[in-house]
């Protein structure tokens, strides 16, 4: 049976074994566009109590490139729209 799929890498007999073995996990790597709600509250959700006498420091945890900042901003905007954050 001839396949219409074009692969970026050659599939060897050894790699085929891994594909079959780990195929059941592929759903973990596919971005689900239908996700629109947060998971329900769990007992391990913790409250962060801030001290009123302390000032928050607004600064980057680490430096990001312009491309990384753009990706981060898109991620934050997308998840704010979904009310995840």
Order of helices and strands: HH
User: How far apart lie the N and C ends?
Assistant: 49 Å
Based on helices, strands and strand pairing, what is the structural class?
mainly alpha
The pLDDT mean sits at: 79
Topology summary:
Blueprint: H1 13-22, H2 66-81
What report would you give on this structure?
- Helix content is 31%, strand content 0%.
- The protein is mostly helical and 85 residues long.
- It has a domain of 29 residues.
- The protein is elongated and about 65 Å long.
Short description:
The protein is 31% helix and 0% strand.
Question: Keywords for this structure?
Answer:
elongated, 2 helices, about 80 residues, about 0% strand, mainly alpha
């Amino acid at each position: 049976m001839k396949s219409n799929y074009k692969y970026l890498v050659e599939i060897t007999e050894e790699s085929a074994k891994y594909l079959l073995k780990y195929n059941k996990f592929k759903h973990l790597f596919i971005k689900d566009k239908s996700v629109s709600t947060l998971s329900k509250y769990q007992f391990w959700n913790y409250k962060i109590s801030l001290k009123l006498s302390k000032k928050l420091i607004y600064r980057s945890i680490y430096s990001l490139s312009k491309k990384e900042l753009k990706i981060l901003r898109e991620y934050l905007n997308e998840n704010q729209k979904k009310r995840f954050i």
